Amino acid sequence: MLVLFQRETCPDCKPVRELLTKLQVSYININVPKPREERHELIRTTGSKFIPALVDGATVIPGKLRENADIIAYLKERFGDPEAVTPQVGTAPEGRPEPVA
């Protein structure tokens, strides 16, 4: 189960939550206190006091100050990019319907 350390008002956390929703991935959301020195569980788990931070089993992606690119890239690699265009089933590469046999 994925664990996301975040705060609701964090502007870098919102895109991570939105991507998890688009991917329809279940996760545990842990809201951390605003004062960084009070984020004991986050620091103990990730070694960092910054959010967002993601834990996926043995994979730990610690937060970085004002940064979420590592988490976004990991989620897209692990679960697929919901924005990627995939060809429709039953359509030839040129966009014409495939002939029926």
Please describe the structure with a list of short key phrases separated by commas or semicolons.
4 strands; 101 residues; Glutaredoxin; 3 helices; alpha+beta; four-stranded mixed β-sheet; Thioredoxin-like_sf; 17% strand
Write the topology of this structure.
Elements: E1 2-6, H1 14-23, E2 27-31, H2 40-46, E3 53-56, E4 59-61, H3 69-79
Parallel strand pairs: 1-2
Antiparallel strand pairs: 1-3, 3-4
Domain Glutaredoxin: 3-55
Protein name: Glutaredoxin
Organism: Streptomyces swartbergensis
CATH superfamily: Glutaredoxin
- The CATH architecture designation is 3-Layer(aba) Sandwich
Per CATH, the class reads Alpha Beta
Number of strand elements: 4
Structural class: alpha+beta
Order of helices and strands: EHEHEEH
* Strand arrangement across the biggest beta sheet: 2-1-3-4
Helix content: 25-40%
Largest sheet: 4 strands, mixed
Contiguous runs where pLDDT drops below 50 for at least 5 residues: none
Instruction: Count every helix, treating DSSP H or I runs of 4 or more residues as helices.
Output: 3
Q: Tell me the fraction of residues in β-strands, as a range.
A: 15-25%
